[in-house]
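User: Can you predict the 3D structure for this chain?
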Amino acid sequence: MSRNYKIQNQDGIYFITFATVGWVDVFTRQIYRDILLASIKYCQKEKGLIIYCWCIMSNHVHMIVRSEAGDLSGSIRDLKKFTSKKCLEAMNEETESRREWMSSIFRTAGMGNSNNVNYQFWRQDNKPIELLSNEVMDQKVEYIHNNPVESGIVENPEEYLYSSARDYTGMKGLLEIEFLE
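Assistant: Here is the predicted structure, written as structure tokens:
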């Protein structure tokens, strides 16, 4: 992986995106979104993950984050590891009509990657971009909040429940955030 796609400054503010392998639409179901939200909240409380902006789409997540503990790579790794484990468990325990199809994709990806034992849920990359200027921060916030609008899910960003757009318009969102200044 190129140096351009690694978190170099562990104390920096980064725009990151991570997606499911095969861009599988896992987060169309409430149970999987709840697992992801719980994992994010845990990383906020226990690992010092600071979230400035976020959006959960059906198969990927966008965030602007930093680590209060100076270990952003570790926080994102742990978030993805826990979430993948719990989502795979839920997929096998819940009534999931797509179980065989999703399991096949995640198993095939896992077998093809020496970093995994059986399954791979998330793509390895996070596409981190360190945000060094207010102009770029503003662009990324707008991009993240408009993702559900561009996808045709809602007409206005603040209508989408799984995003910090609600917070930025004065409503209470699902996650605690800090505002970018």
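The CA atoms of residues 21 and 123 lie 5 Å apart. Helices lie at 30-47, 72-93, 99-111, 134-150, 165-168.
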